[in-house]
Amino acid sequence: MNAPAEKINLTYPIKDTHSLKITNSLPDMGNGPISVGPYIQSEYFEKEKQKVFSRAWINMGRVSDLIPKPGDYVVRDLDVLGFTLLLIHGTDGVIRGFHNICPHRGNGLAIRESGNARTLVCTYHGWSFNLDGSLKHVVGEESFPAFDRADYGIPKITTDVWNGFIFVNAQEHPEQSLVEFLGGLGKDLENFPFNDFNHIARYSAHVGVNWKSFIDAFHEAYHLIMVHARSFPHMAVKPGVWLPTSVRLHGPHHSVSVWADPDHKASPAEALAWKYGAAFTPGKDVPLPGLNPSADDNWWFDINTFFPNFFIDVGSGWYFTYNFWPVSVDETIWEMNIYQLDAKNAGQQIAQEYTKCLLRDVLYEDLSTMERLHKAMHSGALKTILPGTFELAVRHQHWTVEQWVNS
Ligand code: FES
Ligand SMILES: [Fe+2]
Fold it and tell me: Is residue 96 classed as helix, strand or coil in its secondary structure?
């Protein structure tokens, strides 16, 4: 079903130098309209929970943000996976995941959302547990005659860490290891120095839209010319800014590089804010391993979409992540975390503060379309959507969900 890569190379006559490279063979995903059914049907959403979210490796965030020190723990309700996760940073340095369940009679083990402990003690009858999940102490142990301590650890959830990012898998024995699952996209980013970056901002929103539509707004640049005409006026007004320069498919994941206008002139505010620090917009290049994998000319940044619901966008001197958490077929919670290299002086600090504010405005713009289009899908008047070649990532995400749901 794979078409030879050279057959789908496309060149757009917008600029001589500007072409879209699709660097690997594409599966046969079609190019016609896509039904809105999967975006609005509750039955489809139930299948996504079982066939997608319960099988894929799901990102939870970074160790350094969630549980940086031994003894740190954090609790997350994961409705889409059907369990409450307890992540613990062990005294041996190992990151482990558990159900937040006491095996005695099922009380929630950690009551707070996060904390630091040497032992976890259940608040119902006082059983206590070591940080590796093993049972430590049972009050009145002699009253349990048929009892093997080894059977009463905290129930485990498959957990692994890649490059400082924690992932969990609802399967006891996942079909693929985390590294296998991340595949070529993980390989491209394996040497990116994530640990050298500081967390500088976090944004989140709870929006009345299907999780796939939400994601669709973040892996194409076609909308820049309209949605971001105010926040990126010096780029968005030019034709061509909305073109990806290259697309790489890596199994269920994909990566899109975005074009930077070589004639871009910084606005007065940008020029001032980014004089001494890393810019979000094109400008100074900070060469880092993993950036611009297709060696595109006029490269701006890479949008890396890890199936099913996690992004790491990387640029010169910055990266940010998105996690999209489906709440129901009609609701999604979105989280963004922004990271930059250490601000070593006031000038760099100003650049980072400006970036935070600019991205906040950009994100408001992105979110502005969400609920309208979800309502349209429910109206009955919109039966299909039509992603074009510039929105290849939208089609690939949709197609991959279909493959997993029907597998
Ligand atoms: S439920 Fe936890 S000690 Fe009884
Ligand atoms: Fe956008």
Answer: strand
